[in-house]
Amino acid sequence: MAVKIRLMRVGKKKQPTYRVVVADGRSPRDGRFIEIIGQYAPRNEPSVILVDSDKAVAWLQKGAQPTEQAAKVLAIAGVWDAYREATGRDAAAKPAPRSAKPKAVTETPAATAPAPAAAAAPEPEPAAEPAADGTDA
């Protein structure tokens, strides 16, 4: 069973608050969970993050994998530091941040249009002037 630490959305429409939960990876986002280990209220000023670091460290030691958003909340709450102190090593479960996808380069029509022929064509060499003595040499 793949155990995940993730955020579970609760609250009214347009007013989200989240619970930090440990859940089976196959269960839906707001569905069944194993244990609540904290809460996150992003709409408060400043945002409220309450995480039971002892429970979180225990689940990380058991192999629970946090999602990217949950890992950020755990980092702000200081759980990763507590995990490092408890185990004596860096977090193997900490997910690597996703690399940004390269954006497609869109060229403007002016940039793709060929340059004017006069500017692109090399300048012709000047024709040789006839010799002053009247010979074509």
What can you tell me about this protein's structure?
This protein is of the alpha+beta class. 27% of the residues lie in helices and 24% in strands. A 5-stranded mixed beta sheet has the order 4-3-2-1-5. A hairpin with a 6-residue loop joins strand 3 and strand 4. The protein is elongated, with a radius of gyration of 33 Å. The model has no long low-confidence stretch (mean pLDDT 79).
Q: How many H/I helical runs?
A: 5
Task: Report the average pLDDT across residues.
Answer: 79
Distance between the termini: 95 Å
Order of helices and strands: EEEEHEHHHH
Cα-atom Rg, whole angstroms? 33 Å
CATH H-level homologous superfamily name of the domain at 3-87: Ribosomal protein S16
* Share in β-strands: 15-25%
- Count the strands? 5
Summary keywords:
137 residues; alpha+beta; 5-stranded mixed beta sheet; elongated
